[in-house]
Amino acid sequence: MLALGQDEIAKYPFLADAGQYLKDKGFTLEQFGTDPDLKQLIDKAFDRIRVAADGKIYKSDLDGDHVSKEAALPREVFSFLLAIVLLKLSGMHTLIKRFALAEARRAEKYLEKDLANISDESKKQLAIKVIDDLFSIQIEKLDDYFVIPVSDYLKHSINFHEREWKLINRHVENGQVFLTPHETVRLIRKELGTYINSKIINAKTPSMISGFEDSVSKLILLSKKFTTYVVTTGEYPPCIKHAIEVLEKGENLPHSGRFMLAAFLLSKGQSVQQIAPLFKNAPDYNERVTLYQLNHLSGTSGSGTQYSCPSCEKLKTQSLCFATSECDNIINPLQFGKKRK
Amino acid sequence: MQEADIKFVEDSFKKYYFECFDQIRVPERTSEREFGYQKFNSGMTRHISIKSDKELHLLFMQNIPSDVYCSNAYYTFPNLPMNEKDWKEADLIFDIDAKDLNLSCRENHTVSICNECNEISKNSVQCLKCNSIKLEKKSLPCKNCINASKTEVSKLSEVLIDDFAIIPENIHVYFSGNEGFHVYVYNSQFQQTGSRERSELADYIMLHGSIPETFGMKKFKPNRSSFPDFNEKGWRGRFSKQVFGSKSKRSKIITELLTNGYSSFQKTLDNVSENIGVKIDPNVTMDIHRIFRLPGSINSKSGLTKIYCDDLSKFDPYIEASFLSDDSIEVLANCPIEFNLKNKKFGPYNNERVTIPTFAAVYMICKKLATIA
To answer: What's the mean per-residue pLDDT of chain B?
Structure first.
């Protein structure tokens, strides 16, 4: 683990060992519930979660200069640690997820600043080390850019659906991808969020502490806001419509297209017997082979794995995507027509 | 395929495997690979593990397979079902096939075989005899097909070496045995790269999915300064060479591009991609569990061998990849297209009995254009 100064812990509080930190500072959780001065920090922690739940980034005291740094730093760490306690007590996973993501974005800002820091080499080295320790990405500085191996880049970039993150839209040279400090930290946002999320999930849940009850029940109320209902239109997405049309015309649909169609329909609950006739018009139709492959896909034969419908990204690569505006940035054909209410 | 044809082709294959077993390259780390094979008119047998040359030889002699495959992946338990194999890593593989290159020569040497009445005609959309549209296309690739495929292999190597820092010695090129090439990349940084990541690599290599911004065209307030230049690395440099042609034309063409606007630039980009993107089959590259044709084995689509290409520019598959015997055999040939094998010209044959060398007979039988008389 990294040796962190007070300054760093405030910026990256998720790196700290929470229990140890409280002990070092000479506090117990119970004190926060009872001591009126310390109780403010619970409100601060609640606020930190509320802001995160709204999809915003918690505005840190560190950014202003209206308070002395000495007082601000521990408060910053405490509010983070207490927020985790509140979240654990509420048990609301939707809130934990949102909080983790918002905290990741907050840390991202600092990482970016530290990476771009040209006056303080140690800050930059710390940021590079944080990224290496947490995500095993080796970053090197090359002129104004940070470069990382293509294989490392891909591990993270495949989580993005915006086209500018596609490898083809990157400066690639000599087996490495060139990134700005902003892009470097943006690249690990999701993993940072996942890291913080798993740290919270894996933390022990304390039993209820007196003085924490109000904030916890407010959190439970808050999480209700995020329950969603989904309605489906039932219409097929354009890629599936296209595949069916091709087959109906008796034209040749490539193997990958047949795979997509069958996996899609199986996921929608159709049976092998319902799907098989679709392929009758294919120029190379063979009933035995069709049934064998459909049974394989559905998991009734072979290894028993049920295959899922390929992602939109994959279908684009295979030239099977015929996206329309109705697709509305879905990432898998199965999501087509689902509207959140 | 009919019994007599299968017997004949199997005998010819067996002879090759018996006499030329040293042609077959057992891949490195053999025991970590999954093998599979097919026999004529039968399904795939896979999840086989093989420990040595000897075992592989035995498999050939006992089964006389029509096709043999070996995984690009390395597993702890290659013979267990897929989800228990314990995938470790996989070599990067590429398939370049003449049929995917949109070549104009194709229609001159493609035949259509009707699935209903077996009528054979030159490339058509409908059976000339029974009007069925269930046609199977068979191509007898020409020199142009092979040369165009070689060009794609060279383009691929350039991207691999310049952009991905692959060491040239780690790129191995094989003739696929039919109408294209298989390229293997060993010991790269991508050995442990997963399927979704490999699909991104494929898109990169194909110049697929790029946005105008990457090549300097902005949606708002576009300006000249961000357009690529000739000395740039990667696709920006290759884009410059393709679109600007020469340094003197660069400025004028940028002005044109700016005038035409953003959406027109996207069309330019699609066009450029069609011209300079490498035409690989993305499905092969993104598959990390594939069993890929074993080097040295015969491709049953042609009777030719999948063979290592030492010097790609000089390589001629129709001379160097045909290893079957010269013994004469009488066949009933219905092959409307002329072809060359081992420096000999064959066809066209119009439903006639001909006596020809085994290698040519097998070639036509594999293409369903002849049967044993």
So the answer is: 94
Q: What whole-number distance in Å separates Cα of residue A122 and Cα of residue B90?
A: 39
A229 vs A138, residue with greater confidence: A138
**Residues from A in contact with B at Cβ < 8 Å:** 149-151, 154-155, 157-158, 163-164, 166-176, 250, 255-256, 283-285, 292, 302-303, 305, 311, 313-314, 316-318
Contact A164, A79 (CB under 8 A): no
Render pLDDT for B133-158 as a digit per residue (tens, 0 to 9).
888 888 899 999 999 999 999 999 99
Q: Are B349 and B333 in contact (CB under 8 A)?
A: yes
Q: Does B186 touch chain A (CB under 8 A)?
A: no
Domain map (residue ranges) of chain B: 3-99+142-204+281-372, 209-276
The chain-wide mean pLDDT, for chain A, equals: 85
Q: CB within 8 A of A256, min separation 6: which ones?
A: A310, A318, A320, B283
Q: Is B41 an interface residue toward A (CB < 8 Å)?
A: no
Task: List the beta strands (DSSP E) in chain B.
Answer: 35-38, 44-48, 67-71, 73-75, 87-90, 92-97, 110-114, 120-122, 135-139, 171-175, 180-185, 291-293, 298-299, 304-305, 307-308, 328-335, 339-341, 344-346, 349-357, 370-372
β partners of residue B340: B345
Which alpha helices (DSSP H) does chain A contain, by range? Answer: 6-11, 18-25, 29-34, 36-53, 69-90, 93-116, 121-135, 150-157, 181-187, 189-202, 213-224, 238-248, 255-267, 272-275, 287-298, 312-317
User: For residue A121, is pLDDT > 90?
Assistant: no
Interface probe with A: pick from B187, B196, B273, B289, most Cβ of A within 10 Å: B196
Q: Which residue of A has its CA nearest to B202?
A: A317
- In angstroms, the CA A213 to CA A86 distance is 9
Q: Which fold has domain B3-99+142-204+281-372?
A: DNA primase, PRIM domain (3.90.920)
In angstroms, rounded to a whole number, what is the distance separating the alpha carbons of residues A191 and B220?
32
pLDDT in tens, B64-82: 999 999 999 999 999 999 8
Q: Which residues of B320-353 are buried (b: 16+ CB within 10 A; e: fewer)?
A: bbbbbeeeebebebbbbbebbbbeeebbebeeee
Interface confidence (ipTM) of the complex: 0.92
Cβ within 8 Å, pair A167-B200: yes
